[in-house]
Amino acid sequence: MSTPEISAPTRAPSDLDRLLSRARSGLRRLARGREADPAWSRPLLWLVAVLAGALTFWGLTRNGYANTYYAEAAQAASHSWRAWLTNAVDTSGSDSLDKGPLSNMLMGLSGRLFGFSAFTMLAPEALCGIGAVLLLHNTVKRTLGHRVAILAALMLALTPIFVAMSRFNNPDALLVLLEVAAAWALVRALQSGRTRDVLLSGLFIGLAFNVKMLQAYLIVPGLALTLLIAGQGTIRRRIAQLLAGGAAMFFVSFVWYGTMMLVPMTDRPWVGDTTDNSWFSLIFGANGLSRVSGEGSGPGGANFGGSAGPLRLFNSIVGGQIAWLLPLAVVGLILGLWTCRRAPRTDPRRSAYLLWGGWGLVSWAVFSFSKGIFHPYYTTALAPAVAVLAAGGLVALWDRSRDSIAWSVALAVSLVGTAALAAVLLDRASGFVPYLASAIVAIAVLAACALLLTRVTPLLGSTSLRNKIAVAAAAVGLVAMLAGPSAYSLATVGKTLSGGDPLAGPASAELGVGGPGGAGRAAGGGFPGGVFGGGFVRGARSSAPVGLRPAARAHRAGACRAVPLRPGRKRAPVAHRACSATACVPGPARVGLPMQRGLRVLHRQACSRARLEAVAPGPASAPVRALA
Fold first, then answer.
1. Is 544 domain-assigned?
2. What is the pTM of this model?
C-alpha cells in the first residue's frame, strides 16, 4: 500500500510579490519593448537615445555659463526661493527675466539640489533634449508605425539647432519637450476618446506658455484642427472636448502671470523689457505681436535671421540650422495627406499628418514672415514637425517604390535632391570638412542608381537578391542624407556656444552673407544693418559694445552701475550690484525706447559675468551681442 504524498500548502502571493512581479515586467518591457513590437525597434531606440545623450552631454561644460543673462537668473534662483518664485534676474529682486519662469525654475532647482555650476545649470536642458527625442518616438509610433518613429527620433536628434539648444541655457529645449508632450497627450486622446487626455494636452501647452509665452501657441491650430477632424465621438463632443482643453490651457498659461500681477509693484521684480511693469504687456507686446509686426523693434527691426520672406529658412543664416530636411518634409506632408484621402475620418495616419502638418505650417509662416526680432534658434520648435514629416515621406516613398517604377524614381529624386541641398548648405561653411559636400552628392547618386536598377532590370539576380540590394542602397542613401546635419551637429558639440544668439554648426558658417530670402549677417556676427552701430564680434573677448556712451564701457572693469529709469518705483532698483558707478545709463538721448531697451539688455548681459564669477567661478564667455 503506497504512502500518499503530502504537498506543501501553496502560499498566496503577497502584495510585495505582486509589486516585484509588476516591476520586473515593467523593466523587461522598458528594455525589450512590448511583445507586439518588432524585435529591432527597442534596440534601435536605445541607440538613438545614446546618440542624443552623447550629442547633448559630451563636453557640455565647454559652453561655460552660455547665455549669462539666464545663467545669472539661474544662480539667483538656486540661492533664493523668492528669486526662484518671482523669476528674478538676481537675488536683489529688482528685475525679472523677459521670459516665462519655468525654465529658470528648473535650472534653479538643479543648482539648489546639486550646487550651482555650469554643468548643473545646463544638464536639465540636455535632459529635456533627450526626453523630447524619446517622447517623439512614442508619439509617432502610435500613428505612423515603428519605422517612421525611429527615423523621426533619429532626425530630431541630429537636427543641428536642436543639438545646440539642448546644450544651452536658453529655454527652447524645455519648450520642445513640453510641446511634444502636448502632441503625445492629444494622440492618446484620439485613440481613447477620453477628455482627460485632452485636458492633459492643454496642461502641457499651458506649461510651455510659461516657458516662451505666445510661441507655445504656434502648435495650437494644428492640434485643435486634428481633434475636431479625427477625434472620437460626435462633433458636439469634440467641440466640448476642445473647449475643455482650451480652458485648461489658458488656466495653466496665466495662473502664474496673474498671480504676479496681483502682487503690489513695489513687492515684486520689475518685469523685464517693459515700461509699465506688466507681464501682459510683455506677453502680448515685446514678446508677442511686436515680434511679428516689427513695431517697437528699433530701426529696421533687430532681426538676426535675415529678411522676412518665404525662403528665410533657407538663407545663409538660418539654413544650416533647420533647412536640411525641409523639402523632404513638404513632400512627406503632401504624400501623406494624398494617400489618406479616402481613409475614415478617425484614421490615425491622417490625424498624424494633420497634427504635424499644422504644427509645421504655422511655425514656418510665423518664422518666415515675422518682421520683428527673429533669432535662428527659434526654429528649434519646428524641428519635431520636420523630423516626423520627413520620416513619414521617406517610408511612404519606400513602400510604394517596391511595386512601382514611378515611385522608385520619386524616391531616387528625393534622395538626390536632399543630398544636393545638404551640399549647398555645407558649401556655405568655408573650409569645413573639405569634399564632404561632393561625397554626399556622389553617394546619394550611386544609391539612387542602385535603387532604380533593382526595379527596372532582372540582371542583378533573383527578386530576393534585388530586394536586399535595394535595402542596402536605401540605407546608404539615408546615410548620405543625414551626413550634412550630422556634421553640423558634431561641429556644434566641438565649439563653445555663448551669448544671446547661438548658432549651430562650424564657426565658419557664421560668416556667410547673402542667400535666398536674407541679407545674411556681417562677419563677426554684428547686428544686421548696424542696428547698434556694429554690435559685438562673435568670439572676441575684449571688444566693447558699440553704441553705448564711453562712460558706459567702464562696466567691463566693474566700475559702473546701471539703474534704468522706472516711473513709480518707491525704492531704487539695484540691478547690477557688482558695479559701483552711476555713469552707465545706456544709450544717447536721441535713441528711442526700443533701442534703449536693447542697449539695456546688452549691458545687463555684459555685467552679469562679474556677478557669476563672484559666486561660481567658471570659464569666460564671449561678449553677448543679441537680445535673448
1. no
2. 0.82
